[in-house]
Design goal:
Low-confidence stretches: none
Mean pLDDT: 85
Number of domains: 1
Number of helices: 5
Oligomer: single chain
Largest sheet: none
Shape: flat
Length: about 90
Amino acid sequence: MQITRGMRIVEAKAYVAERLGVSPFDLSDPIAMEDVRRERQLGRITTFEISYPTQSSAMEAKFRIAELLDLPINCVQRFRQHAGLA
C-alpha cells in the first residue's frame, strides 16, 4: 500500500484494517490475524509442518489478498495472463 498507493504507514494500516474489518491494532496481533486469515482464506503462517487440505494454497491466498485489498499483485496478474484469465 505504501508503494502502490503512495500511502504513509499509518494510512496504509488504516486502509488494510478497514478492508479486513479489524482495527489497526489487530494487524499486529498474531492470534487475531490467524482468525482473519482462516475466515477469509488468505493463507496461513505455519510454524510447524502440518498439512491443511481445506486451507487455500499460497497462490489462492494471493488472489484473495489482491481482490480484498483491490491491490495489483504482479504474480497474480502474470498468472492470469499465462492461464488466459485476464
